[in-house]
Amino acid sequence: MEDGLIVVKEFLSMNKVLIVTAVEAEKDAVKRGLDNNSRFEVIVGGVGLAEAAVSTAFALSHSTFSTVISAGIGGGFENKADVESLVVASDIRAVDMGSETQTGFLSLEELDLGTSKYDCDITYVEKWRKQIETFGVDVQTGSILTTTTTTGTVQTAHKLLQRVPEARAEAMEGFGVAAAARRVSVPVYEMRAISNVVGPRDRNEWKIKEALAVLEKASGTIQEVF
Ligand SMILES: O=C(O)c1cccc(C(=O)CC[C@H]2O[C@@H](n3cnc4c(=O)[nH]cnc43)[C@H](O)[C@@H]2O)c1
């Protein structure tokens, strides 16, 4: 009988999805989008990749998940992702992790010190993009950059795009969530509803309410794909 219970528990945990947001408002938006389904656990992991990594690792140490998703609002690079659209990551990059030199930036890979990029399973990324589209959301796929500082100038935005020309969006948590998930070999994904353009900071211009509505709509697709 006990063996049976263990098998049932393992089966139920096989399809559990952990969704990590930075703040409560993002968690609420994701939960509104999801049906009240016990397969999905949505947690507030905190702002920044360190808090996100610790929170994700903690959740993963207490329960088994088949998939982890970093979700929230983010900045969109000009002409790459419009405000009020959505970006699904093809890969998640710690774009400022490395070394600045007199002749340019060296990534962790170039320094032979580790990885600054996690690829997402492109089959699921494409399936998810198509599903989101059917919900009437303007959606793109591409690299989502994780930065430790929100970009505040055109110069920095250009510098980041030079480093990663395929970048569409930036946020502050994805790489932390991904590092924790990959440590235990769990596939990881990221989606960002675009609240602002990456560049000169004007917080009053951020379309947070609108981006949260996009995040809510897109969250309704998670249960169809994962
Ligand atoms: O004030 C509010 O009501 C509110 C509601 C939801 C989210 C927030 C945030 O401030 C979230 C911070 C979070 O947003 C990401 N983010 C958004 N835009 C950018 C950007 O241009 N560059 C980097 N990160 C961005 C980031 O992941 C932050 O953790 C407030």
Task: Provide an overview of this structure.
The protein is an alpha/beta fold. It has one domain (2-225): Nucleoside phosphorylase domain (Rossmann fold, 3-Layer(aba) Sandwich), CATH 3.40.50.1580. It has helices spanning 2-14, 24-33, 49-62, 122-134, 154-163, 174-183, 208-219, 222-225, and strands at 17-21, 40-44, 67-76, 86-94, 98-101, 104-107, 117-119, 139-146, 167-171, 188-197. Strands 3-9-8-4-10 form a 5-stranded mixed β-barrel, surrounded by 4 helices. Strands 5-6 form a two-stranded antiparallel ribbon. Strand 5 (98-101) and strand 6 form a beta hairpin. Helix 2 (24-33) runs parallel beside helix 7. The longest helix is centred in the N-terminal third of the chain and has 14 residues, at 49-62. The protein is globular and about 65 Å long. The model has no long low-confidence stretch (mean pLDDT 95). Bound molecules: the ligand O=C(O)c1cccc(C(=O)CC[C@H]2O[C@@H](n3cnc4c(=O)[nH]cnc43)[C@H](O)[C@@H]2O)c1. Ligand LNDFFVEH binds next to helix 2, strand 3, strand 9 and strand 10.
For the biggest β-sheet, the strand order reads 3-9-8-4-10
Ligands: the ligand O=C(O)c1cccc(C(=O)CC[C@H]2O[C@@H](n3cnc4c(=O)[nH]cnc43)[C@H](O)[C@@H]2O)c1
Number of domains: 1
> What is the fold-level CATH name, i.e. the topology?
Rossmann fold
- In CATH terms, what is the architecture? 3-Layer(aba) Sandwich
The pLDDT mean sits at 95
The helix content is: 25-40%
Structural class: alpha/beta
- Strand percentage: 25-35%
Radius of gyration: 17 Å
CATH homologous superfamily caption: Nucleoside phosphorylase domain
Number of helices: 8
Low-confidence stretches: none
Q: Could you name the CATH class?
A: Alpha Beta
First-to-last CA distance: 30 Å
Order of helices and strands: HEHEHEEEEEHEHEHEHH
- The count of strands amounts to 10
Principal-axis shape: globular
How would you sum up the major sheet? 5 strands, mixed, barrel
